[in-house]
Amino acid sequence: MTENWIIAFILLLCCIAAYKAHSLTVTGAAAAFVVGLSIYFGFSINGLILLGTFFISSSICSKYKSSKKAVLEEKLAKGATRDWRQVFANGGTAALIGLIHCYDVSSLWILPFAVAIASANSDTWASEIGSLSRKDPIDIRTFTRIDRGTSGAISLLGSVAALAGSLLIAVFSFGLFHLDLGSLFIIFIFGFLGNIIDTVFGAFYQQKYRCSNCAIVTERKVHCQRPTIRIKGFTFVDNDMVNFLSGFIAVLLSLAVILLK
Length: 261
Hints:
The chain has about 260 residues and is mainly alpha-helical. The protein has one domain. It has helices at about 1-20, 25-65, 65-70, 85-105, 110-130, 155-175, 180-205, 240-260, and strands spanning about 140, 155, 210, 215-220, 220-225, 225, 230. The strands form 3 sheets. A 3-stranded antiparallel sheet has the order 4-3-7, with no helix packed on it. The model has no long low-confidence stretch (mean pLDDT about 85).
C-alpha cells in the first residue's frame, strides 16, 4: 500500500513537471495522472515505463525543430501542448486495458496494451517528424502533393518515423514483459497499422474547415477571429476522435489475431 502511494506521488510530480514544461495543459496533466494510475494498477511499474517511453519520446519529437513547425499550427486544431482530449485520445485505450487487467490478470492483455501504446507512438512520430519532410506529402485520396501538416497525407520521412515509433515500443515491450519475438512482431505491425488507419480516417472522415477570410484549409473551427466553414468530414470526427479510433481498432484487430493463434 505504501508503494502505491509513493508511485502515485511520483506520477503526480511527473505530470506537474510536464505541465511546467508546456507539454501538457492543466487538464492534460490531470488526464495523464488518471491514465498513468490506471496503467500502473493494471501493469505495474513496467506499464508506466512503457507509457513514459511514449510520452517522453513523443514530447521530444514535438519539441524538435518546433520553430519550423510553428506555421503548421495554423492548419492544426491544437499545438504541441496536449490537453485532456489529446491525452485520452492517445492513452485512453491503454488505460482501459489497464483497468480490465486489474480484474482479469490473464497475460492476454499485455499485447493489446502494448499495441495501444505503439499505435499512439507511431502516429505521433509520423506527424511530428513527417512534417519536417523537404517534400510536401501525398494526399491518399487524390495522390497529389498537398501542404505539410494536412491530415490524411503520407511522406517517406513520416512513414519511416511511424515504423521507428512503433518499433521502439515493441522493443521496450519485449524487454519489459519478457515476450517472444512473435509478440514483438505483432506489437510492431499492429502499432504501425494504427498509424495507417489514422491516415485513412484523416483523409476520408475527419472534418476540415476553410477560413472565410484567408481561405486556408484548417482543422480549426475559428480562424482569423472568424468562424470557419466546414468543407468535408463528419461533424464529430476531429483529430482526437481519429487518434482514439485508430488506436482502438488496431487493438481490436491485434486481439483477434491473438485469440486465433
